[in-house]
Amino acid sequence: MKVFKGKIWAAIGSLMDHAGAASTTAKSSSSAAAVPDRALLTDIEAAIERCTGSSGGGGNDDDRHVHEILFLVSNARGAITFLSRRITARLEAARAPAAALRSLLLVHRLLRAGDRYFEQDFRSLWASRELRVDAPRCSCSPLAAGVGYASGACAFVHGYSAYLEGRMQWVINQAGNLEPARKPPPPPPDHDAGKPMPSSSSDDAGAETLLFKLAMCQRLLDLAIQLLPDNNTSASTAARSAFGIVLRESFKVYDAFAEGIDVMLLLSKSLAGQSKPSRATAHEILKKACVQTLELKEFYHKCKRSSANSKSIEYPLVRVVTPAQAVVMEMELELVPIPEEDGCQEEVEAKPQAEAIDGGGSPFAHKMETTISTVWVGFDDEDQKLITAPDAGDP
């Protein structure tokens, strides 16, 4: 019996030893996975070079190189941080506009080709300044191609950098469309977690989200409109590729803007009850839409004339908002000036009478009181004679 018990304890000890060794191996492997090995980092660096080197930027092999980078980054958790830092370093070191443009184009392609988790991590690194797209320091000195090309290419690079700064604040939703990235608004402070949110609060949150979306659409469309390359810059393969991506993204942004304007009219009651800053924002959006929609229509018209592949691109039909239409929309949205605090009491007092007059009921539905004041007037003897004297025209 003693021998049998000894064998049992020996077996248990052996199992514990194996479990401890397995846990140690798992910990070491997880720590090794958190820090990419040198060979993987070397492969990522080589792939970046193929995309941003003199032979890259807008070529047919760019998509293959981009997917290669995404595959390498997915094999290690910390590799995306290394990728962001290497792209930023290349962008800061670039002195020629073409080199800076190729680095920016790689960022844009990765942002579009990555999955939802990669996009989220990429945007987080941009927010923490690990990835910087506002770092081009390219010189605008005359190049071999001429002064016009140098100045035009440098202006395009800086405009494209500004567009990417705005583009980083957008995400691709499940339907494949662009939408602004924004956290949902917090519930009111006096709202109980166990009770449903009042309909008025949800309507206010929906109206604020809609106004935010429309304002973001207008900002990104402004950046896209200013990015139309000139004849010299359009000769660059990277510039044509970058502008083609921006142009197609502007189509989706405008579709979101046009849809938001229609939703704004449907939510007219909610917007009419918004605060003064929100109503002022709605007024500014409509005011800006009068100018921007006309500029956007002209921008697409220029793109059609300058692009050789314009026949294969389906441009959206831009609805130009005129000032008269904006006034009508403001009237439908009831975007009237909000009274000041001093006049609030007068407005409350005058409301019952206004409802009685403007409403469909009888104007005499409310009881009206009339106060007659008595005024005593004194007369002297001459006035009394004039009053009692018969008129000359009397019989």
Describe this protein's structure.
It is a single chain. Among the domains are: 35-140, Serine Threonine Protein Phosphatase 5, Tetratricopeptide repeat (Alpha Horseshoe); 169-183 and 205-335, Up-down Bundle (Methane Monooxygenase Hydroxylase, Chain G, domain 1). 64% of the residues lie in helices and 2% in strands. It is built from 14 helices and 2 strands. Helix 2 packs antiparallel against helix 3 (62-73). The chain is globular and about 80 Å long. The relative contact order is 0.06.
Tell me the name of the CATH homologous superfamily of one domain: ANTH domain
Strand order of the largest sheet: 1-2
C-alpha geometry: globular
How much of the residues is beta strand, in percent? under 5%
Short description:
It comes from Zea mays (Maize). By secondary structure, the protein is mainly α.
List keywords for this structure.
two-stranded antiparallel sheet, AP180-like, ANTH_dom_sf, 14 helices, mainly alpha, Putative clathrin assembly protein, Serine Threonine Protein Phosphatase 5, Tetratricopeptide repeat, Methane Monooxygenase Hydroxylase, Chain G, domain 1, 395 residues, ENTH_VHS
Helix and strand arrangement:
Layout: H1 2-34, H2 38-52, H3 62-73, H4 79-93, H5 97-113, H6 116-127, H7 147-167, E1 170-172, E2 178-180, H8 199-225, H9 237-266, H10 268-272, H11 276-306, H12 323-333, H13 344-358, H14 381-388
Antiparallel strand pairs: 1-2
Helix pairs in contact: 2-3, 2-4, 3-5, 4-5, 5-7, 5-9, 7-8, 7-9, 8-9, 8-11, 11-12
